[in-house]
DNA sequence: CTATAGATAATCT
DNA sequence: GATTATCTATAGG
């Protein structure tokens, strides 16, 4: 047996398809060394999805996506920013959820200092911004999200809104971006679907 | 509010 | 050699 299994509630929440995990992570609290906030925006990526890094199979970069549920997949984008994903769905290897925005609640002064920004709305409103604010780097690729320095606690999701993902070319129509309705901390507005 | 340029480097073809 | 799950600053309506 694994000497340090995931909490059963967290395990069952994450051992599901990326789309449903992306919804369930909204409202959860994510901290790194006590600094962070409430997840308000996510995107789902699955191995069957042309937009996913895992679409063409395992590589050195995306190895964490094919590892155990509940780990971090951290990668560098455009040569200068970091992005953080939650690995999920142990029935379909290569699934993960990109954390796109947080509502800052803890360590706000530390985040302002790291980001060089005063506006709380802009501290964590974007995947690379949130990594900069929390101090997430490639060193944390593959790390467990339920143990230090990370902390991940599920929360009650408010009303959820879906829309197309941002910044991708393939699979652009798939509405796998999710946000907390009415949140002022989204990276971009997300309209309610009729 | 939208549009665009530039930064900058690993990854993959 | 092309691409990239971004951000910031700047210019224009």
Structure, described:
Helices cover 15% and strands 27% of the residues. It has 194 residues and is an alpha+beta fold. Strands 1, 2, 3, 4, 5, 6, 7 and 8 form an eight-stranded antiparallel β-sheet that branches. The longest helix has 8 residues. It binds a DNA duplex (13 and 13 nucleotides) through β3, β4 and α4.
Secondary structure layout plus pairing:
Blueprint: H1 8-14, H2 18-24, E1 29-32, E2 35-45, E3 72-77, E4 81-88, E5 95-106, H3 108-115, H4 127-134, E6 150-153, E7 160-163, E8 177-180
Antiparallel strand pairs: 1-2, 1-6, 2-5, 2-8, 3-4, 4-5, 7-8
Helix pairs in contact: 3-4
This protein binds a DNA duplex (13 and 13 nucleotides) through strand 3, strand 4 and helix 4.
Could you provide a short overview of the structure?
Helices cover 15% and strands 27% of the residues. The protein has helices at residues 8-14, 18-24, 108-115, 127-134, and strands spanning 29-32, 35-45, 72-77, 81-88, 95-106, 150-153, 160-163, 177-180.
Give the amount of beta strand, in percent: 25-35%
CATH topology term: 3-methyladenine DNA Glycosylase, Chain A
Over all CA atoms, what is the radius of gyration? 15 Å
* DSSP helix fraction: 10-25%
Number of DSSP E strands: 8
Helix count equals 4
The rough form would be described as globular
Distance between the termini: 47 Å
Q: Summarize the helix and strand pattern as letters.
A: HHEEEEEHHEEE
Identify the CATH homologous superfamily: Methylpurine-DNA glycosylase (MPG)
Which residue ranges are poorly predicted, with pLDDT under 50 across at least 5 consecutive positions? none
* CATH class identity: Alpha Beta
Structural class: alpha+beta
